[in-house]
Structures are given as C-alpha cells and as structure tokens.
Amino acid sequence: MKKYLTIGFLALVALGCEETTRTELRGSVAVSFATQDPSTPAPVPLLAAAIVDTQVTGSDTLIIMSAELVLREIELKAVETTDCDVEPEPVGCEEIELGPELVDLPLTPGAVQRFRVDIPAGMYSRIDFEVHKVEAGDPRDDAFLLQHPDFDGLSIRVLGTFNSQAFVFETDLNEEQEIDLIPALTVSEGIDVNVTVRVDTDTWFRTLAGDLIDPATANKGGVNESIVTENIKNSLDAFEDDDRDGRDD
Asked: Per-residue pLDDT for 84 more than 70?
C-alpha cells in the first residue's frame, strides 16, 4: 500500500530576477500532498483516538505514528521559451524558492493543500527541492533551529513501533530532488491549479524483496542504513492534481 508525504512551507523568496512589473500576468498555484493511495482502502487505526500508518507483511507489523522531515530549496522551474540571460529579464524566467520548513507528514487520506503562491503566468516543467540536513551556522537554518532545536544535524525523524517495540528513526540525508511535471503545469491568470507532491513511504522500510525492516536498524551506522536511505531517495513524485485526489491520472 502506497503512502504519501504532506508538506507545509515557511518562506517565499523570488530569486535571480528583477522585480515583477505591474502589468505582468500572474496565476495562483496550490501545492498539496497526499498520504494514501486513493485506490487502496485506508487502514483501520490500531490505536484508539490515533491516526497511524500501519504496514503488515507476513508476521511483521510496522506502525508509523509520526513522520517529520525538513525541505529546503523548493522551486517551480519555468519552461524557458525565451532567452533568460538578456536584460531586462523576460517574464517567465522567475524562480520561486521556499523553505526550510519542518513537514509533519499527515496520515489521513486524500490530498491536502499546504500552501499557495502567485507566480508569473506560463508553463512550469519541473519542481525541485532538497531533503535538507539542518546545520547551525547557515542564517536560514539558524532561524529554523530557533523553533526546532532538536533537528540540528537531521533531516527526517520517524516515530512508531515495529512488532510492538517502540523505535525512533533519524537520518541526516541531504538529497536534491528534480521531478519533471509531465505534462508541464500551465499557470493562467484567474485559473487555480494544484500540484501534488507524493512520496511512497510504504517503500521506506523494506528490503528489495519487500520484507519489512525494523527502522531502528536503519539509524546512523545501522545495518540497514544504506537500504533505507536509497528507498527514501527513490520515493518522491509530483504531478498536477486539480481535483486533489492524490491520483496521477
């Protein structure tokens, strides 16, 4: 059963461009995130008054109670139909960047909007972001750490149980992701569009054969660290999802 990430964002910065003119057409883009594959029945929570992600394979049961990660350098990349190296820079060459932001991954069904941004009308072919290891000394990270000091040196934390034993999984993964939007996202004035970012967390704690892994064995220096790290790197996707059902169709 596939699970997906849900993300919220902290800051919006326009990079590498001159100030937008008043006559420039702009559109609105919502970014949403889904937590469950809509084609798969939602699991029944095993804990009273709690929403959890339950994965069962053979005799093993993994329950994710919370999952948090930090994203930074989040950008929507425009399709460049003109030369962006000329002055003044043409409309549509703007890059939009967000983060860092701590993402508390919801475990509920459906796509959930986490932020909305106005950007120049045009076509956008890619969304880029970084699963980000927070490090003191970077001005943006320092501001983030004032609110989340326990994430110094980390990018992801997952809490839960494996076969009824509590675990804490933490990683300092620092990985850039470049995900093509196919077809490209068309942003028009007065027309709302939605992009869903999806991560298959069901694959995070599994072997190549599909068996569940105890997340505690994937912490720094653990025997399964490299397997889980690669699983996380390969688990993200993004697509236009105007009906917000979390389905890429």
From this structure: no
